[in-house]
Amino acid sequence: MKLLALLLALALPSAALAQQAPPPSSPDARYVVRKGDTLYTLGTRYFARPGDYRTVQRLNKIPDARRLQPGSTLVVPYRLMRTNAITAELVAFSGAVRIERNGQPVAPRVGLPIVEGMRLTTLANGFVTIELSDASRITLPSNSSGLVRRLREVPMTGGLLRVFDLDQGRSSTSATPSDNPNSRFLIRTPLSVSAVRGTEFRVAALSDGQATTEVLKGLVGVAGSKTEVAVAETFGVSVTPAAVGDPTKLPPTPKLVRGGRDQEDAVVAFEVEPVAGAAAYRLQLANDAGFIDIFNETKTDKTAVTFDNIPDGAYFVRATAIDALGLEGLASNYGFARDLNVLEPGQAAVERSGKVRKYLFKWTATGQGARTFRFQMFADPQGRTALVDQTGLEAPQLVLTDLPPGTYHWRVTATRLAKGKITEKVGGLQELNVGQ
To answer: pTM of this prediction?
Structure first.
């Protein structure tokens, strides 16, 4: 519980904050003393006010500010340390999206810097995805609103402080793992705080006055007004003003039994296999296999779902089941081709030949330096034998044509040249189902 308390100490739920004046301070950071350090030099170099070294001296019970033992650990309150603002980036948006800074509208565009204090709002069938400096991503689907509360880097520890307030609606987060124990990543609702170091999870502030957190990968600490719970992978919790509920197993992945290949009718139609215990289903449509660029979604208690006005092209559909507590389960992803070909009374049939189904794979990479990419696709989930192995890609995307029905697994490797150093980052395997 000590680790969970440390993760959650950075911020209380926004409702609790409103009841306190002044707000509680940030938690303490841990700094490992280096050779030559003194409290005087640390104060000058890293503290907002050099004289704050005295507070650190008292907190750590150090008799002589000029003498520090190399390798020892100092406890330093975040409120004393100098921080630098960092930015995120808008990497995808569609539909009705509002971005505001200091109450003034900002026109959305891919590549727009997202800074501390910006509010992001999506209306019906509006979607927005931002990417942070460490390649972590936050997506707001339809009818959601949130505030970028803190985007900071702490020179003293090298840690990052990221706090996002979700006022209403839903969010989906992929947090890049960090080996820096002083980094913090929090998603807050009016009822809860979800704290992570590296994981994939969803947070919702529901219209019925509850909040939920669902963990897809990793471990998430969830705190309410009185209780806090560690939520493991494939589990979720519902949060009320009274307490954080017990972790509940998320609904299983639904299978698509119709619509995962060709769509020629006037509407795009899908059908999922019923999931035991499911009260509803959600389907999302995206332009890319990683669901960075989502453009439509629907939630229904039916297993059959339709979408209108979808242009011709190759797309991807994601299906999830939702239980009676409002917890949304694991997703299944499928690729499908949209090629409108409708025969109506009074019309002659039009024969089409030479159809080509194009599947777009898209990813993002941020930070300094020049990059090239390697795209690989496998038939097995272990990634042993490559069906596709494309190297030297300069653009963060690739189009494949006419994939036969089946289950595929793909990943991207980024090679970066920055400051004279070449580094390689290998992404995790992603699953894609084509056909049925």
So the answer is: 0.76
Q: What is the DSSP letter of 234?
A: T
| Domain 2-80 architecture | Roll (3.10)
Angle CA 76–82–85, to nearest 5: 130
- 356 vs 208, 338, 404, CA distance in Å? 46, 11, 12
Task: List the CATH code of the domain at 84-248.
Answer: 2.60.120.1440
- 91: left (phi > 0), else alpha (psi -120 to 50), else beta? alpha
CATH architecture type of domain 256-338: Sandwich (2.60)
Q: Which helix (H) or strand (E) holds 44?
A: helix 39-46
Residues 350-375: pLDDT tens digits? 333 356 778 889 887 766 678 899 99
Q: Where are the domains of the chain?
A: 2-80, 84-248, 256-338, 358-434
CA-wise closest residue to 221 among 180, 188, 179, 172:
188
Q: Where are the alpha helices (DSSP H) in 134-246?
A: none
List pLDDT tens digits, range 118-173.
Answer: 999 999 999 999 999 888 999 999 999 999 999 999 999 998 889 999 999 999 99
Q: Cα(first)–Cα(last) distance of the chain, in Å?
A: 45
Q: At what angle do helices 53-60 and 39-46 cross, to 10 degrees?
A: 130
**Residue type at 101?**
R
Which single residue is written with the structure tokens 């006005």? 309
H or E element that contains 230: strand 228-231
What is the Cα–Cα distance from 242 to 128, expressed in whole angstroms? 32
DSSP letter at 16 equals H
pLDDT in tens, 195-206: 887 789 999 998
Q: Are 78 and 28 in contact (CB under 8 A)?
A: yes
Tokens of residue 399, six digits:
């189009």
Nearby residues of 69 by Cβ (< 8 Å), 6 or more positions away? 33
- Rounded to whole angstroms, the Cα distance separating 52 from 68 reads 16
